[in-house]
Automatic annotation (TrEMBL):
It holds the Pfam family SET. Residues 152-168 form the Post-SET domain. Residues 44-144 form the SET domain. The keyword Transferase applies. Coiled coil: none annotated. One of its GO terms (molecular function) is methyltransferase activity. InterPro entries: Flavunoidine_N-MTase, Post-SET_dom, SET_dom, SET_dom_sf. It comes from Sphaeroforma arctica JP610. It comes from the Eukaryota. Keywords: Methyltransferase, S-adenosyl-L-methionine, Transferase. This is Post-SET domain-containing protein. GO terms for biological process: methylation.
Amino acid sequence: MLRILSSRTPAFSSSLRQGMLVRSLCASAAQQKPTGESSIQMRDSIELVYEPKVDGQAAHAAEDLNATQVIGRIDLTQNIVDKADRFSIQISETTHIKGSALQECVYLNHSCAPTCKVHFHNDTLDFVTLQPIKKGEALTFNYVTSEWDMATPFDCTCGAPGCVGHVAGFKHLKPKQQAALYRDGLLSPFVANKYDTQQQK
Ligand SMILES: [Zn+2]
């Protein structure tokens, strides 16, 4: 099964060819290993696979995963920037987690029918599986669940029923698509609150 067709990774691929990025990300995960469960889960759950369709690395399940399993946990108390880019994740109107802080999770590509979601807590951001995932299956999440108005929109060709086509942020979805993501509880607190506010106007 191949559902990832739009990726954060093309811009990384030149670095990858130089052999820099994966090593630095893995080193950074390894350095953090004594501090907690999350980096252990992350290393065990995610493997990076070359994805020809996007000419870059993609995160795949390194083992069979259960539904609602945390595959990566990111510290929100640091690595915050005020400018979005292709790899960042939005946390408020003016703040974003920078891509380098996402470690292996930066390789979760976009899908309109994703296998994972992002779940925000006060100080952490978790990447959580939405369903049981078999070893080798792609780990993906829907970028518009956290991005209101994306700095780097792209055309999605994931082919999923209901694929939104042009991925430019939650703001640009059709009302029906927005309502479905809201109803399913997939939105970040920032996007959910902003949507709520707009609906009340
Ligand atoms: Zn799509």
